[in-house]
Amino acid sequence: MQCQQWCNTRPALSRLIQLLSCPLCDSLMSDPCVLNNCNHHFCRRCIEWSISEKQASCPICLLPAWAKDVKSDRQIGTVIGCVSSMDSHILQGDDMEVLFLIL
Fold it and tell me: Which biological processes are named by the entry's GO terms (predicted)?
C-alpha cells in the first residue's frame, strides 16, 4: 500500500526534475548558476561555454551576458541534491528512505 502511494509521486518528481534541468545540456544542473540580468539558470560549465564560445548573451532570452553575470545558486543546488536523492530512492523502491528525506 505504501509503495503505491510513493509511486504516485513519480509524475510530480519528474516535473520537478524537468524544472531543475539545464536548458543547454538537458540534465539536472551541475553547479547551478543564475545569470544576474535575467535570472535564468544553467550548469556553470554550460553557461560559461555558451557565453565564451557561442554568444555573449543568455541562450534563452538573448539579453547580453558576460562571465561576471554568472553567479552560483547554492539554494537550487541544495534542492537538486534532495530531488536527486528522492529520485534514486523511488526508483529503488526505498519508500521509508524517501519519507526520511522529506521529513
Answer: DNA damage tolerance; protein monoubiquitination
